[in-house]
């Protein structure tokens, strides 16, 4: 049985420009220049994303639902999973190279990036779901009522204590506002396939 996580129970990694509850949703406005990335290819470190995090009990899955209503370069929203500034995963929907993509950035001192096009997700409600299985994190996503898609199976030290919750960032512009409809805990995936 899913359990809603109250918005007020999280702590921001970096305060957004604005965050307000409206009809049970959390509406967040990101600061221009906000992002999460470490070193790889670009050579910079950004650690100023807007993530609302709580401790993650490995016996539960975490789900975040938000509306994909943005089209600025590198606008992004979804979920952040974090151990510390050098060990984290961000996953969600990002607008890059002129199109929306679902993907993940897995960071173990340096970041990587996976991305698959989902232009049909524009204007829809997307849910990101993460579960811990052994030494990994299984990331799934879906738009509306469609079936879950496997986004990534990422390695994670099983001894790490992690936090998880909704996040957004706007690396190149001001004015990105994301409507998060829910943040909940539910039964984790029992297997990868």
From TrEMBL:
Gene3D superfamilies: 2.60.120.200. InterPro entries: ConA-like_dom_sf, DUF1349. Signal peptide: none annotated. SUPFAM superfamilies: Concanavalin A-like lectins/glucanases. PANTHER family: REGULATION OF ENOLASE PROTEIN 1. This is DUF1349 domain-containing protein. It comes from Glycomyces buryatensis.
